[in-house]
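Hi D.,

Good news: the full-assembly prediction came through. Inputs first.
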Amino acid sequence: MKFSANFSASVILAVLFATAVSAAPFLGSLKHSTTQVRSVGSGLVVESFHPESTLETFGVGGIDHPLSTRDEFDVKEATVSFIQSRLNVHPDTVAFRTSFANDVAQHAFVKQQIDGVPVANAVANVAFNKDNKVVSFGSSFVNPASVPSTTPTISLQDAILKAENALSGKFNEHPPTLEFVAKKDGTLALTHVVQIQNDTTGAWFEVFVDAHSGEVIQLTDFVAKASYRVLPITKETLPEGFEVLTDPQNPAASPDGWHSDGTTSTTVTAGNNAIAFKGSQTNTTSESSSGLNFIFVQDPSQAPTVQVNIDAARTNAFYVVNTVHDISYVYGFTEAGFNFQNNNFGKGGAGNDRVTISVQDSNGIDNADFATPPDGQSGRMRMFLWDFTNPERDGALENDIVTHENTHGITNRMTGGGTGRCLQTLESGGMGEGWWTEHKNATVVDYVLGQYVINDPAGIRSHPYSTDATVNPLRYSSLPTLNEVHDIGEVWANMLHNVYAALVADHGFSDTAHTDPT
Ligand SMILES: *[C@@H]1O[C@H](CO)[C@@H](O)[C@H](O)[C@H]1NC(C)=O
Ligand SMILES: *[C@@H]1O[C@H](CO)[C@@H](O)[C@H](O)[C@H]1NC(C)=O
Ligand SMILES: *[C@@H]1O[C@H](CO)[C@@H](O)[C@H](O)[C@H]1NC(C)=O
Ligand SMILES: [Ca+2]
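Then the structure:
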């Protein structure tokens, strides 16, 4: 159908939506699910709007679509005719975009279109089963109160300038489009859609500039944010309290973040440096409630094995191992230094060896371990439950234990050229002990390992690590009397603690030491 812009829009809308059943209303009460406020660039605040969506499911058997009686199934025609009948809209309103099929279903995706212009934030999806019946239908189609002219009054060139200034970046030459955006007040805006990047900050936005007013009215942030509810790396044990951290990764060490190897992205605790799981290595999906939001509120009154506590534990272990990866990376444990990464980004060393973290591993109790095969094979971390308390406690929630295990991997890889063969004798094995990350300031306090899991302030070693010889009398000369790897490790750890204290006394403490090795 071809009409002049204003005429067609109002007539089509009036007719098409007169009896619409599922076109989304603009409800102010749906604030949290429909709007995203972002502060960007030079003080600009943009409230992006995503119309409410409806979802209907029709059981595994599904329901017919209007073209079901035809011999040939055409996913495009079936989708368009189903949406047309379900929403009681004209076929021209439904712009088929794409589809894909897997073993059990075929999924089709469409955009709403008004007068030939797509509505960027009004979409729908239909799933068909193998018998070509409709099993589910989701829609955020809108019924706008008014439609502006489809001829821009602001030129594309001006829109690009606006976007570049507002977002502090450069237009990246990706072909711009002209699209409608449904606004919260029920109106539509015609927009120039351009991509803006800033190579320094890594920012990458899709910017919707109103083609009549020149205002930036909507943003898509292509840089995925990840949030984790964890015990931050400068805290040692759980009573110090969880915090929600957003994007804690260091781009200098993990250029594609913690959930991508450059080719495959995930929304679970799996990425280029580590994968954390309970059960099998593929069993990471249930923890991912929405996107990259790993917000699981650990419940200390319940067993560590209830789902939310498993999820909290693998989130924390994943966070700690990735953080230790990023810290050790800037100090030289890089791809060429035989570190643990799946993709080495062409920077040397052997890849495909991210750390596998088995939380609540069923093969042990009251312990944890780390196996370090040669560069090119994954380091294997196993975290066990501790049964000193009721309910039991989870080693994955005590940062010093996770860090301690992880540093076995670092010391075993950084000695002997990545073979994992070097620290095999008793004394050298002990040298793999005793590294930690919880220093907060220049005050070097005595250090206790494992006090949370065994619920004893003295921890699991014979003495706290201390600069005070009356608190910890262990010296290098103690070694000949010791015959167990952890006992020997304690001595080395205490020496390391004293070296650290001496360095801080001489050079001071740096708040940015975890990201800035200078
Ligand atoms: C990118 O961001 C940096 C830091 O905010 C800023 O100094 C620079 O001007 C921006 N680049 C462009 C092209 O706007
Ligand atoms: C997956 O993890 C759950 C706990 O989150 C566990 O009960 C189940 O046995 C695991 N399944 C496999 C196949 O490992
Ligand atoms: C300094 O660090 C010590 C030990 O980590 C801690 O107990 C203390 O609260 C910290 N002080 C400040 C001001 O953060
Ligand atoms: Ca490696």
